[in-house]
Amino acid sequence: MVNGMSIARSFRELNVYRKTRSAAQEVFAVSKTFPREERYALTDQIRRASRAVKAMVAEAWARRRYKAVFINKIDEALGEATETQSWLDDTLDANYLTPERFRQMDAEWQSIGAMLNRMIERADDFCKTTPRKNGPS
To answer: Are 53 and 87 in contact (CB under 8 A)?
Structure first.
């Protein structure tokens, strides 16, 4: 345990990854209802941004040996999460989502952003290295 947290063995065990995966699936599901003319302008963009968050979390996990790289990747994920919220604004403005559904989805992405911010602030907890064994591996 690190500061009361259990130590994850895989990026898939990270709460932020699980939450982002679920939120990206929701974006995909609702974007199926968008008009065909939004296929490239909105649908592809919001799907790419939402999916990029979880991909960047996974990449950050793999690069946590280097704190600066870890922070950079999590910061990029935060940017994509915020971009997803911007695309959600467009869905609300175009009446593709009800205000209630928009608020629910936006709150989810806001929560993901907060989790990513905490990961940046607590990068040392994620980037601690285990001592290497002597000899060839």
So the answer is: no
Per the DSSP assignment, residues forming a β-bridge with 5 are 2
Break the chain into its structural domains and give their ranges: 16-127
CA 121 from chain centre, in angstroms, equals 16
Instruction: Name the nearest CA neighbour of 5 among 132, 115, 99.
Output: 115
- Taking only the tens place, the pLDDT of each residue in 3-29 is 445 677 899 999 999 999 999 999 999
Architecture of the domain spanning 16-127: Up-down Bundle (1.20)
What is the tens place of the pLDDT at every residue in 113-127? 999 999 999 999 999
- What angle is formed at CA 125 by the lines to CA 81 and CA 20, rounded to 5 degrees? 25
Closest CA to 79 of 44, 38, 120, 30: 120
Query: What span, in angstroms and rounded, lies between the C-alpha atoms of 27 and 50?
Result: 7
- Per-residue 3-state assignment (H helix, E strand, C coil) for 71-127: HHHHHHHHHHHHHHHHHHHHHHHCCCCCHHHHHHHHHHHHHHHHHHHHHHHCHHHHH
